[in-house]
Amino acid sequence: MPAGGWSEPALQPGHDPFQHLHDESYAAPFAVDRVGWRDMLSVAGRTLESLDGDWNFVLDLHDEGLRQRWYEDEPGPIAGWRVPRDYDDGDWQRTAVPSCWNVVRPEWTYFEGGAWYTRAFDFASGQPGERVFLRIGAANYEARVFLNGVFVGSHRGGSTPFFIELGPHLRQGQNRLQIHVDNRRRPERVPMNHTDWFNYGGIYREVGLLRLPPVFIRDFGAALVPGSAGKRVAVDVTLSDAVDGVAEVEIAGLAPLDLPVTAGLGRIEIDLAPELWSPARPRLYDVGVRFREDELRDRVGFREIAVAGQRILLNGEDIFLRGICVHEDDQALGKVTSEADIRRRFADAKALNANFLRLSHYPHHEMAARIADEEGLLLWQEVPVYWAIDFASPDTFSDADNQLREMIRRDRNRASVIIWGVGNENADTDARLAFMSGLAASCREMDATRLVSAACLINREHFRIEDRLSDALDIIGLNEYFGWYEPSLDGLRRLFANSDLDKPLIITETGADAVAGHDGAPGELFGETHQSQLYDRQLDLVESAPYVRGFCPWVLYDFRTERRQTGLQRGYNLKGLIAADKTTRKKAFATLSARYAELAQRQGET
Ligand code: GCB
C-alpha cells in the first residue's frame, strides 16, 4: 500500500503536459468551419427555443481555454480529477445572455479578450429527420462554438446573427454548449481598433435553437419590381436543398400563387398592385411561404425607392430625408437593446419630426427595422467599415463583405430600410476605392430594391464634394463638422459653391458637443446654445444647396466612447440632442424639431 493511500496512475507515454506552453498557433484550428451569410436562415414566423438566461462564465485573458482545450475536459467535481486543470466548468461565476460583460461588473469594464460561456441544456428529438440549428443574434466580435466537447463552428463580425447546424454532435438528454467570445480590437478587422464608440464584449443578443424539417425554406423575398410603377411584385424562395417542387405563396388579401422551384431556387414576377408602404401610411401585408411541411410568415411592405438626377424618389415622389443618427448604446446595458428601447428611440425621432434614421455604425438589432416598418420610419443601415480599415487585405474584405451580406439577408424584407451604407469617413485611396466599390457591387448583386451610399469626406485639395467612390454610389453621404471641428461655417459655404453634383447628397453627419444643462454663451464650445445655433446655421446653408436631399446630424443620444477624456466628456461623446439618460433634451432638440416641422410642411406633409 503506497504512503497515505495515494495510488499513482500509470505514466502516459507520449503525453507532454507542457507542450501547449510553446504553441502559438493554438487559434488556427478554430479559423475553419466559419459560418457566414450563406448559412443564414430566415426566422420569420419561426419559434426559437430560447437559451437565454444565466450561463457559467469566465474571462480568459491568456486564451488558456483554446490553448489547453478546456472544452474537451469532461465536466465533473474536482475531487474526481486525476490531472489538475485551470477550468472547472462550474457555476461559481455566472452572467446573463444577452449582456455585455463590460457593464456587469466594474472590474470587467475595460476587458478586451476572450471569455467562455457554458451551459447545459436538455434535448429530445422531435420529428424524424429533424435538423437543429443554433442561432446567436450577435456576439462581439469572434465566436467559437463547442458542443459536447467538439468544435462545431465559428463566426466573425460583432453585429450580425449566425447559425450553426448542431447535427450529429447533439445528444438525447443533456448537452453541454460552450461559446468562446473574443472582443479584442485588431487592425485587420471590421471595425479596426480605432473607433469613436465603446468596444462592448459578449453575447449581447438572443440565443436559441431552431428545429426544422429535413428540407426547409432557407429564405424568401417579396418586393416590388423596380421600375414597375408599383404594379409588379417579385417573390423568390431559396430552399435548404437542391430539390424541385412548388412553393405556395400567399400575400394576404391579394394573391395566392404557386412558385415553381428548381434545384432549391424559385422566382416569379406577377402583375399585382399592392397598396404602397410609406411613412404616412406604413401598410404591411401578411406574407406566407410554404414548401412541404415548412412555412415562413412575415409582414412585408411594398415600396419603391429610386434616384432621379439630384432627387430621391419614394414611390415616385420626391422626398427630403429629415434624419438623425443613432448608436445602439445604453448607459446601463451597453449594446443590449430591447423593444422598449427601440420604441423610445423612434418616439424621440418622431418628436423631432424626423422621417429617417441612420443606424450607425454597424447593423443594429433586427427588431429596429421591424418596428420601423410598423412606425413608418425610413432607415439607413451600415456595416462598420469605419476610418482606417485594412483596405489592402483580401481577408479584411471578405470579413466586411460577409457582414454586409449577412445584414442584407437578415433585413431584405424590411420596407423601412432604403439605403445600405458601405463605409464611414474612409480616406480616398486606391485600395479603399477597390474595397468599397466591391462592397457596393455586393449590395447590387444581393438587392436591387435599395440604394447604396457611404458617408464620405470632402476633397481637401479642391475643397469640393468629390470622392472617387461616388461613381459606385446612388447617393453621396457627407460628414462635415463646420461649426465644430472646423469652427468657421465659411468652409461649408465654400464647399457648396465649389461643388456640383449629378446625384443626391445627404449630410450624413454634422453636430457639436453640448453638456446637458449647461447653456453657455453663443459660440461657447460644449454649451447648449452653441449646439442649438449650429443646427440653425447648418440648416440655413444646407437648404440652399439643391442637391442636398437629406440632413442627418450626429446624434440622437450622448454615447459612451473612451476616446473622449476632457472633464466635461468623461468617456462620452456629447453630440446627442438628448443626454445619455435618454430623457434630458438639450436646446438643439427643440431647434431641430421646429426646423423639421417647417420642412415637412413645405413638403406638403403634416
Ligand atoms: C464622425 C464619426 C462619428 C463620430 C463623430 C464625432 O465623423 O463618423 O462616429 O462619433 O464624427 O463626434 O466626432
From TrEMBL:
Keywords, in A-Z order: Glycosidase, Hydrolase
Keyword Acyltransferase: no
Glycoside hydrolase family 2 catalytic domain boundaries: 305-596
GO molecular function, one term: hydrolase activity, hydrolyzing O-glycosyl compounds
Source organism, top-level taxon: Bacteria
Protein family per UniProt: Belongs to the glycosyl hydrolase 2 family.
Keyword Oxidoreductase: no
Official protein name in the record: Glycosyl hydrolase family 2
Residue ranges constituting the Glycosyl hydrolases family 2 sugar binding domain according to the UniProt record: 48-213
Organism: Bosea vaviloviae
GO biological process: carbohydrate metabolic process
